[in-house]
Specification:
The complex is a heterodimer of chains A (231) and B (754).
Chain A: H1 2-19, H2 22-37, H3 41-57, H4 63-76, H5 82-102, H6 106-120, H7 124-145, H8 150-162, H9 171-187, H10 200-216
Chain B: H1 2-16, E1 20-28, E2 38-41, E3 47-49, E4 55-60, E5 64-71, E6 78-84, E7 89-90, E8 93-95, E9 111-115, H2 125-130, H3 138-142, E10 167-171, E11 174-176, E12 198-204, E13 218-224, E14 231-238, E15 241-249, E16 255-265, H4 267-272, E17 278-295, E18 301-318, H5 320-323, E19 333-353, E20 357-377, E21 394-413, E22 419-437, E23 442-464, E24 467-478, E25 483-495, E26 500-511, H6 515-520, E27 527-538, E28 543-559, E29 570-586, E30 593-607, E31 623-633, E32 638-647, E33 651-652, E34 666-667, E35 671-684, E36 687-696, E37 706-709, E38 722-725, E39 732-743, H7 746-753
Parallel strand pairs in B: 1-7, 1-8, 10-13
Antiparallel strand pairs in B: 1-4, 2-3, 2-5, 5-6, 9-12, 10-11, 12-13, 14-15, 14-39, 15-16, 16-17, 17-18, 18-19, 19-20, 20-21, 21-22, 22-23, 23-24, 24-25, 25-26, 26-27, 27-28, 28-29, 29-30, 30-31, 31-32, 32-35, 33-34, 35-36, 36-39, 37-38
Classes of the chains: A mainly alpha (231), B mainly beta (754).
């Protein structure tokens, strides 16, 4: 019985992929390219607006909301005011919640986890415990859905990097997770060109940073000034 | 010819199919251009984002009529109908700014708020417990804020010229009758509740909301925590006692329950560190906490908190009047013993409904019983037979109060943050006192049964993001006074610029006289205070400056005469308080150090109780200043917190100066205190531990709160003997470890789901 449901689900899923309109895919990949090149808040905001215009039309697709939220999360790395960062993340979280009504993709759990861990940076002393835990739990849930998603381990590595060794974090642990993510990035194939496929380069860059730091200094943790993983 | 026409009509649609270019400028109502506005053609992907000059431009292949929409965070969305014909279109938008949480001004007059959830608060929930000198007492931390007095010798929080009884505490909206634990005269009292069970604290030093009443000076409004993040088991051991607790979060994460037990016994500590009073029984406390919290729906939350506390203290100290004999053989001892039982239960329910309705329901019951014995003993521990002391040589007092309250608040959210709030409150309050005196051998019993009812309504009015007001009114009736009252409240805030704002508050506040006066005279009426407050707050990133001016007028305070005759108790007392206060907090200037400075100046006089005339009361220091700093080394997981407090001397009554103009004319020496605490956080295996060492007054400043005088001049040398009121020891040292086994059930959830 389980198998039948499973294959039915696959079928429906597959059908939906096929059903995606070509202009939708074309529009999404166009904006994705712009998002990759975006270097300012204004550019990211333009992409977010563009994705949300698509979301307003394609009410059955979760990716437009996913990417809009991701733009907002990326924008926070260029903001300093905690209030503004929270406002962006509030918007991102609302979109992720909307998207989760459509899909239970592990990618949405990863993105939500990233959003939670970004909130820590606003006030590490009072937020570390609450959001750190929520963020970790979301990644744990993502492993249930798809344990081969490399972004899970990349995000875990980032939070380990900013967590002192005494609390189960540290650079050694971070590197271990980054290596695991590296292996999975090698084999990861998104099911379509517009599905989430980010993180490989950042993961590689982090491996180099951490390796260098471990060879160079005795410092065991990083300062939690900006916890958002770089894009 | 006919054909060409036909052909033409045939071709027209094709010509229209050419793309339409749409462009324009987006501005706000003031004419400022807006950057980043999302302009879209509804039903299509087409659209653009406005640039630095507010300009947008895009092309669409759509034809016919369509709707163009401009949306921007913090502004109302605007839609404009357009006709797409292939001809260039120019469409400008003027967006109206919405009143939003992020931008709107907050009324700050009179209120200090500690919260992690609300944006832009002065303090965080954690600040309450990490302030050195507070020793894990919420009220201790509040004493570092402006407006409070360093009355560590008395029970309660003394705010802006008010007594401790003029400050009342509310948990999840409902009034708490016995917010302080059992205490001994001249030794002060701690708050009953563990600060860790609260996620938010509002300390109002005046002008508080119409939702609360029966506090002349100040309201401390506490909000309890919701579901814990995970299950955990905790254990603590310290120089004052030990405790354990367990908290379980259900698998669905929809409900949790917890139980805790704490045992405090200061016998070992007092054996090690000498006290200047003799403890027959050092403070001994058994305390049990229970909680149950459940998410009843997506937006509903039901919380129960239960508390049981048994406290026992028995002390002896020199009887001052007997010292006036100047005869070592006749030095007597005052014994004061208290057994306190307290039970408290609080049930609260909160839910959000359709159309922005919100319901807050609170119910609470409490029972408090004090068994107090005061005796005067000879050096052989016998009751004195000396006729000068006999009448008060053996007094026992039994105080009991039973309280049940229900409070309902309905809140209707309107557009642009406007809201109306209204509700009702009912409190049943039974008080009993049984007194037994040696001479004449008799017993006196008092009892009152009070039914207190209140109705209240309040409106939040946001005119713009920069201008907001709150208007409220509260109507109360007390059965024991058999009197109504109507208390209006109003406040307003105006944002001067991005970081600065000005607030004002006004209100009338009523309070019933304390129980002991109502017992003796049932004809008393409400006491009343009128508050006027002006506040300026400047809050750039990581810094905050607050300055506040206030004037408070007291009417109908309780007046007794020095002998406490029944018929002499009246509402004829009066007084005023005025002053200014400054608070500055800075997390930026000194790298990694978070500090705040508070300063209060007060000018107050009152004629109340047995005061002979209107004077500065003996619980008020004219100038008070606090310096609080916090430093935490994240890499080392180690932190140091310090608090330095200064207050000028407090007036006291010296009966040796008989003339009326000398009443309360003497002042104590200035008060200095320094507290330091260090904490170290460490995870050992799976156990999270916090190690705390705190020392109060390490430099041993001499602290004098006032003087106790002999009741009579027994040796008739025209000099009443006196003794300073001091803390029982110069230093207080706390050393403790808190261990926590966090049981993260997410792994279990994973296993169960596979």
């Amino acid at each position: 019985m389980k198998k039948i449901i499973f294959s039915l689900l696959l079928l429906v899923n597959g059908a939906m992929v096929f059903a995606a309109k070509p202009e939708y895919v074309q529009m999404m990949s166009g904006v994705l390219q712009k998002m990759k090149d975006a270097k300012s808040i204004e550019a990211l905001e333009a992409c977010a607006n563009n994705f949300s215009r698509v979301a307003a039309v394609e009410k059955e697709e979760w990716l437009p909301n996913y990417y809009t939220a991701m733009c907002y999360i990326l924008e926070t790395s260029m903001l300093k005011d905690g209030k503004e960062i929270d406002a962006k993340l509030d918007k991102a979280d609302a979109l992720i919640t909307q998207a989760r009504d459509i899909s239970n993709s592990d990618e949405l759990l990863c993105l939500e986890s990233w959003s939670k861990s970004t909130r820590i940076g606003v006030d590490p002393m009072t937020r570390g415990m609450k959001y750190g835990m929520e963020s970790a739990q979301l990644l744990n849930r993502a492993t249930i859905v798809n344990q081969n998603n490399p972004r899970i381990y990349y995000l875990q590595a980032m939070s380990a990097y900013f967590t002192p060794e005494k609390y189960g974090g540290g650079k050694v642990k971070a590197l271990e997770l980054l290596k695991k993510a590296q292996g999975l990035f090698e084999t990861f194939k998104p099911s379509s060109e517009i599905m989430p496929n980010w993180g490989k380069e950042q993961n590689q860059a982090m491996i180099e940073t951490v390796t260098k730091e471990m060879n160079g200094s005795t410092d065991d943790t990083a300062t939690p000034n900006n916890r958002a993983p770089r894009k | 010819m006919k054909y060409t026409f036909l052909l033409l009509t045939w071709f027209v649609p094709f010509m229209v199919l050419a793309d339409t270019k749409i462009s324009g400028v987006v501005k706000d109502q003031k004419g400022e251009t807006l950057i980043g506005v999302n302009v879209s053609l509804i039903g299509s992907y087409d659209g653009a984002t406005s640039n630095v000059n507010g300009e947008y431009q895009f092309e669409t292949s759509k034809t016919d009529s369509a709707v163009l929409k401009a949306s921007y965070t913090g502004y109302s969305t605007q839609e404009i109908k357009v006709k797409l014909t292939g001809k260039d279109l120019k469409v400008d938008f003027t967006l109206k700014e919405k009143v939003t949480d992020l931008k709107a001004v907050v009324i700050t007059a009179g209120a200090f708020e500690a919260s992690d959830e609300k944006k832009g608060t002065v303090l965080k929930a954690l600040d309450i417990v990490t302030t050195a000198g507070s020793n894990g007492d919420s009220y201790g931390a509040l004493k570092t804020l402006p407006g409070t007095q360093q009355t560590n010798d008395r029970e309660g929080l003394f705010v802006r010229g008010g007594t401790g009884a003029e400050t009342q505490t509310f948990i999840d909206g409902t009034w708490v009758r016995n917010a302080f634990s059992a205490s001994i005269p001249d030794l002060g009292a701690r708050g009953r509740f563990n600060p860790f069970i609260f996620k938010g604290t509002v300390f109002s030093s005046g002008g508080y909301s119409a939702l609360y009443g029966q506090a002349l000076s100040s309201a401390v409004i506490l909000e309890s925590i919701d579901l814990p993040e995970r299950s955990s088991a905790n254990f603590n051991l310290s120089s004052v006692g030990l405790g354990a607790s367990y908290q379980q979060l259900s698998k669905s994460k929809k409900s949790s329950w917890g139980i805790g037990y704490n045992y405090v016994n200061l016998t070992p500590y007092f054996a090690l560190i000498k006290q200047n009073i003799q403890y027959k029984t050092a403070p001994t406390v058994h305390q049990v906490d229970l909680n149950y919290r459940v998410k009843t729906s997506k937006s509903g939350m039901l919380k129960f908190y239960g508390y049981l506390n048994l406290t026992n203290i028995d002390i002896q100290r020199s009887n001052i009047t007997s010292l006036d004999y100047l005869d070592a053989n006749k030095e007597y001892q005052d014994r004061y013993a208290i057994k306190n039982q307290n039970i408290y239960g609080n049930l609260s329910y909160k839910n959000y409904f359709k159309n922005d309705w919100k319901l807050n329901l609170g119910a609470c019951v409490s029972y408090n019983h004090d068994d107090i014995a005061t005796q005067i003993l000879t050096q052989q521990n016998q009751l004195v037979t000396d006729s000068n002391f006999y009448s008060s040589s053996d007094v026992s007092i039994e105080n009991q109060n039973n309280v049940a309250t229900v409070k309902v608040v309905l809140d209707k959210g309107l557009p642009d943050l406007n809201a109306i709030r209204f509700g009702a409150e009912y409190i049943y309050n039974q008080d009993k006192t049984d007194l037994s005196l040696p001479v004449p051998i008799n017993a006196i019993n008092y009892q009152t049964d009070e039914h207190y009812k209140a109705l209240f309504a309040e409106g939040d009015i946001y005119l713009t993001n920069n201008l907001a007001g709150k208007i409220g009114v509260r109507a109360e009736h007390s059965s024991v006074l058999n009197a109504f009252n109507l208390a209006p409240r109003a406040s307003m805030a105006y944002k001067v610029n991005k970081a600065g704002q000005l607030s004002v508050a006004y209100g009338i506040f009523y309070q019933k006289p304390e129980q002991q006066y109502i017992f003796k005279n049932s004809q008393l009426g409400y006491m009343r205070a009128d508050h006027y407050i002006v506040n300026y707050q400047f809050q750039p990133k990581d810094r905050i400056l607050r300055a506040e001016l206030y004037y408070k007028k007291y009417h109908d305070l309780i007046k007794t005469n020095s002998y406490g005759y029944t018929n002499a108790i009246s509402n004829l007392g009066k007084g005023y308080a005025q002053g200014f206060e400054v608070f500055y907090r800075d997390k930026k200037t000194l790298k990694g150090i978070d500090f705040w400075i508070s300063y209060s100046f007060i000018d107050t006089k009152r004629e109340f109780l047995n005061y002979q005339k209107q004077v500065q009361p003996d619980f008020v220091a004219t100038h008070t200043a606090n310096f609080v700093f916090k430093k935490f080394w994240i890499k080392k997981m180690f932190g140091i917190n310090g608090t330095y407090t200064f207050a000028t001397g407090r007036p006291y009554y010296n009966p040796n100066l008989q003339e009326a103009e000398n009443f309360m004319s003497e002042k104590t020496q200035p008060y200095h205190n320094f507290s330091i605490s260090a904490n170290y956080l460490r995870t050992i295996k799976k156990v999270f531990s916090v190690w705390v060492l705190s020392v109060n007054n390490p430099f041993g400043f001499k602290q004098v709160y006032g003087y106790n005088y002999a009741f009579r001049d027994l040796n008739q040398n025209n000099n009443y003997f006196s003794k300073p009121i001091t803390p029982p020891a110069k230093q207080f040292i706390f050393l403790g470890v808190f261990l926590s086994w966090g049981i993260d059930r997410s792994q279990e959830a994973i296993d169960n789901n596979l």
